[in-house]
Design goal:
The protein has 239 residues and is α+β, with helices and mostly antiparallel strands. It folds into two domains: 49-135, Ubiquitin-like (UB roll); 140-230, NADH-ubiquinone oxidoreductase 51kDa subunit, iron-sulphur binding domain (de novo design (two linked rop proteins), Up-down Bundle), CATH 1.20.1440. It has ten helices and seven strands. The protein has a five-stranded mixed β-sheet. Strands 3-6 form a two-stranded antiparallel sheet. A hairpin with a 6-residue loop joins strand 4 and strand 5 (103-105). Helix 5 runs antiparallel to helix 6, helix 6 (160-177) packs antiparallel against helix 7 (185-199) and helix 9 (210-218) packs across helix 10 (220-238). The radius of gyration is 21 Å and the shape is flat.
Length: 239
């Protein structure tokens, strides 16, 4: 956490180490054709290409290299890439950049381009390049419960907000999953997510709420339905 940060400068103020395969894979093209040629493959805000991994309910799952600036609809539906829904059902949402990335509704992303600025404008991010696509048979609550289980499992336990908070997040989602949400739970859940995000010591806890917050924005009705259903059941029991 202390400066100098390795992203800026390396040991003894020397250039920092670059060791990811994707960066190295771009070097031969840049050396052969020049930096401007590489930049022209992408957009003004981010030149070149990006490796993406398409998984979930698309026909053509796999690893692809796309030019930054490619329309998201082309990535999802063209035969060159995703090929559309593998189940025949309408696609519902997309999870970008791994478990710590944001979730967006397919309907909200019709005009989105896959670039750093284009995604940022929609409140999303490119992240690692992972793109998980789910159809309308998938409950957003069920999906997020699996995401929360990942963070609870991966927490190192060093700091209390992450060690305890990720478990409480998972427990609340399991409560929603079972249809046991009570009035006020959404507000308590939002506060819990905020505390874990702001108080965790490292990036794991700080990003544990990213997918959940974005999903709550994209699909508020699914969270409201859980609370409404439970409230109605409580009233029936009381009467």
């Amino acid at each position: 956490m202390k400066p100098p940060h390795l992203a800026d400068v390396g040991l003894y103020l020397k250039p920092t180490l670059v060791n990811n395969v994707e960066s190295y894979a771009c070097v031969p093209y840049i050396l052969r054709y020049g930096g401007e040629a590489f930049k022209s493959l992408g957009t003004q805000d981010g030149g070149g290409t990006k490796l993406i991994c398409l998984t979930g309910h698309v026909k053509n799952r796999g690893l692809y290299e796309v030019n930054l600036g490619t329309p998201l609809q082309e990535i999802l539906y063209s035969e060159e890439y995703g090929g559309g829904s593998s189940t025949g059902r309408p696609l519902k949402f997309i999870h970008f950049g791994g478990q710590s990335g944001p979730i967006g509704s397919v309907d909200q992303l019709e005009d989105c381009i896959y670039s750093y600025d284009g995604m940022w404008d929609e409140g999303l991010s490119v992240g690692s390049g992972a793109i998980v696509v789910m159809d309308d048979s998938v409950s957003i609550i069920d999906y997020l419960t699996q995401v929360a289980a990942f963070f609870a499992h991966e927490s190192c336990g060093k700091c209390t907000p992450c060690r305890i908070g990720t478990l409480r997040i998972l427990e609340m989602l399991e409560k929603f999953q079972q249809g046991m949400g009570m009035p006020g739970d959404i507000e308590r859940f939002h506060a819990m997510l905020t505390h874990v995000t702001q108080l965790s010591a490292c990036g794991l806890g700080q990003s544990a709420s990213t997918a959940i917050f974005s999903a709550m924005q994209a699909f508020p009705e699914e969270f409201e339905q859980v609370i409404d259903t439970k409230a109605e059941k409580v009233q029936e029991v009381m009467w």
